[in-house]
Amino acid sequence: MKIKIAIGLLLSILTIGCKNNQEARRPISHSSGTFMKKSIDKNKKLIASEEQQIKNIIKNDGKTPYTASSKGYWYSYTTKNVTDTITPKKGDVAFFSYEIKDLSNKIIYSELELRPQTYYVDKQDILIGLRDGIKLMHRGEEVNFLFPSHKAYGYRGDTKKIGSNTPLLITVKLRDFKSEVAYKKEQSDKVKRDLEAQKNAETESNAVPKTPKSTPKPNDTIN
């Protein structure tokens, strides 16, 4: 009798375990996949809308020849260097200034506000569009870039003046660029010169003889 009871209990436990295992193997929900698809479709529509805005600007301009980049933005030249062939690459340091406008040509950040930039090519975080665009430029050129928002500040904006999903017109002046090795050597030499100049100035200052204070002579006249 006890054996039958034990067997019955064992069968009950196994049956419950099987039910639990069956419940654990429920079909995976596809809601996350649906959300992802909707998000992708939304982004595609946004990009298409912004690109159409940019194409309309180019069409309405009519006078300025723009080039469509394979990376998803457009650019035109204000100043073009037709003699140089080299452009900045990884391992170089680029010196540039830039100005940011919206597509209605209204200044958001002036060149003065943004100040001259020293950029270690492909080694520093800058806008995706600028990261690529600067590598198209030759020394001394000024280029106008039309960037869709995903090539600029994206859906977050810059949390200051640039809102979410804002396409931009960014004008860049590439003043110069050189190898990182050459730039670091220049900086090192400059520090040495400054220290030497400071040392010489201190030496000259210490070498100047101090004029002793004159002691007043006693008055020999007796009144």
Automatic annotation (TrEMBL):
Broadest EC class assigned to this enzyme: isomerase
PROSITE patterns in UniProt: FKBP_PPIASE, PROKAR_LIPOPROTEIN
Bias (Polar residues) ranges: 203-223
EC number(s) reported in the record: 5.2.1.8
Residues of the PPIase FKBP-type domain: 91-178
Keywords of the record: Isomerase, Rotamase
Coiled coil: none
A GO MF label: peptidyl-prolyl cis-trans isomerase activity
Reaction(s) this enzyme catalyzes, per UniProt: [protein]-peptidylproline (omega=180) = [protein]-peptidylproline (omega=0)
Ranges annotated as biased composition (Basic and acidic residues): 183-202
Gene3D superfamilies tied to this protein: 3.10.50.40
Database matches in InterPro entries: Motility-assoc_PPIase_GldI, PPIase_dom_sf, PPIase_FKBP_dom
Ranges for region Disordered: 183-223
NCBIfam families: ppisom_GldI (TIGR03516)
Similarity annotation: Belongs to the FKBP-type PPIase family.
Protein name: Peptidyl-prolyl cis-trans isomerase
